[in-house]
């Protein structure tokens, strides 16, 4: 079995990647994960202010700032893409079938 | 201070108006760093005053300012170890060879499309355009939008951070997305205009919006909608002086047409004709055509209402909205008789699409008054008064109530 762990918070505490790496709880968690040898891919995301949402309605691509806020919708999948810039990510997002009835939220990876 | 000093000061002021956006746009293109670009542009304008007093005003002030700002950027990046790589890039002044040159007639075009990118919050697009392209200070923008300066500063910082962190490209969008992106740019310019138009002392903002629209036309002469927007703004602006009387709103019908700015009207109509000649109709061109019908009528009674009604039908097709439907209803009332218009207004009321909009009952009241039904008009005016958002509008409605 493969699982996705969605790591959530309200962004009221936003440590830097360095602070996070120095957090003993994070260190223990990370070491445990390494020991199990099971991690396939893990990335931290930039905060929601950097999010962009793409929807396609009646064939028209609608780009809006901010996260995908329709509460009746749930995460149905994810893909990590390498793009030249946000416009390319928007193009890819707009091509996904779910963009026609749901939406695709684009979140930059925090590197 | 001697006369030459005044001349230098005037030359720097003129250069600021004409060149600020271009200097910042070029520096962002070279360094990719928005803050550095703004700082160095600011430095270049500051040293212009001293240098031009000593050496005279250069033949091409824009080139002088860009070079000075670029040298300042090189100095700053040299001092910073991480910037060393960028200095080499700057020194050779190369452009991306893959960039299709026919799409980039001016660096400012890249700047305006990036400022108005739909991934940025709308208020941030407006603020960023006024700051980086038009050169307004954060304090000036905050004042114009009745916002605290710290809030506006925060908005600008966040927007620049998002451009960097989300990877918003610094470019003119390719042709397949150009049309929606251009619409986003025009929406920003029109909002700037309207903000200035609604304020008693908002002339600086309307002038800025008009200037930016002229720039956009120069940069994209083949696109008709920027011309449509410019025409619309000029035609609105021509009536500015007559819109209020002692703080109360004056409707178009009652405005003193002899005080309209006929030079602006002539330019607006000519600009609209150029746009329409392209044969690619758009929402701003239709709105400008409607405005033109109004301002070219010698008096209110000779307004071409059938033509205006037809234009609103076209606008509803291009940009459907209940407000457009309401304006269409008014035009129909004036063209085909009040009952026909009232029937359309009642349809909109029944749809519930404009429930909290004061102009819905105000329009209904006005049509009832014209139809000689004062009791019903009074009730509708009362309803509009409850919803009216500004003092000028409340005063206008109160006046109408008294006249019944």
TrEMBL record, chain A:
Xref: InterPro entries: Dimeric_a/b-barrel, YCII
YCII-related domain boundaries: 1-111
Coiled-coil residues: none
Pfam families: YCII
Family: Belongs to the YciI family.
Listed name of the protein: YciI family protein
């Amino acid at each position: 079995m493969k699982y996705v762990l969605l790591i959530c918070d309200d962004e009221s505490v936003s440590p830097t990647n360095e602070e996070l790496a120095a957090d003993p709880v994070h260190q223990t968690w990370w070491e445990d994960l390494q020991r199990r040898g099971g991690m396939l891919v893990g990335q931290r995301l930039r905060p929601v202010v950097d999010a962009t949402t793409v929807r396609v309605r009646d064939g028209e691509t609608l780009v809006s700032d901010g996260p995908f806020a329709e509460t009746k919708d749930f995460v149905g999948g994810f893909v990590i893409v390498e793009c030249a810039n946000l416009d390319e990510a928007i193009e890819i997002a707009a091509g996904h079938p779910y963009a026609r009835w749901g939406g695709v939220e684009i979140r930059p990876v925090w590197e | 201070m001697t006369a030459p000093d005044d001349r230098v000061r005037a030359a720097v002021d003129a250069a600021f108006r004409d060149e600020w956006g271009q200097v910042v746009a070029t520096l962002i293109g070279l360094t990719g760093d928005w803050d550095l670009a703004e700082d160095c542009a600011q430095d270049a304008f500051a040293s212009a005053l001293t240098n031009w007093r000593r050496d005279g005003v250069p033949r091409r002030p824009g080139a002088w300012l860009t070079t000075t700002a670029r040298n300042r950027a090189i100095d700053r990046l040299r001092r910073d170890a991480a910037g060393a790589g960028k200095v080499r890039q700057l020194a050779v002044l190369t452009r991306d060879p893959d960039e299709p040159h026919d799409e980039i007639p001016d660096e400012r075009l890249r700047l305006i499309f990036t400022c108005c990118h739909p991934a940025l919050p709308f208020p941030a697009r407006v603020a960023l355009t006024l700051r980086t392209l038009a050169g307004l200070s954060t304090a000036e923008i905050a004042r114009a939008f009745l916002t605290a300066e710290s809030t506006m500063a925060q908005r600008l910082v966040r927007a620049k951070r998002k451009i960097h962190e989300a990877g918003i490209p610094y470019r003119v969008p390719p042709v397949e997305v150009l049309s929606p992106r251009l619409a986003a740019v025009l929406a920003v310019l029109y909002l700037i205009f309207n903000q200035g138009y609604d304020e008693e002392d908002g002339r600086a903002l309307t002038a800025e919006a008009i200037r930016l629209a002229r720039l956009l036309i120069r940069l994209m002469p083949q696109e008709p909608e920027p011309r449509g927007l410019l025409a619309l703004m000029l035609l609105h602006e021509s009536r500015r002086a007559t819109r209020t009387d002692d703080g109360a709103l004056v409707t178009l019908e009652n405005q003193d047409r002899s005080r309209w700015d006929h030079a602006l009207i002539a330019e607006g109509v000519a600009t609209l004709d150029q746009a329409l000649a392209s044969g690619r109709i758009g929402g701003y061109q239709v709105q400008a055509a409607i405005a033109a019908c109004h301002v070219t009528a010698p008096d209110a009674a000779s307004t071409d209402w059938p033509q205006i009604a037809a234009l609103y039908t076209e606008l509803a097709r291009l940009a459907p909205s209940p407000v457009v439907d309401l304006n269409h209803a008014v035009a129909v009332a004036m063209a085909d008789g009040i009952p026909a218009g009232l029937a359309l207004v009642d349809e909109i009321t029944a749809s519930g699409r404009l429930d909290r909009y004061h102009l819905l009952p105000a329009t209904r009241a006005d049509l009832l008054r014209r139809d000689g039904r004062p009791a019903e008009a009074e009730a509708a005016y009362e309803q509009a008064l409850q919803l009216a958002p500004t003092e000028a509008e409340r005063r206008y409605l109160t006046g109408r109530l008294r006249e019944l």
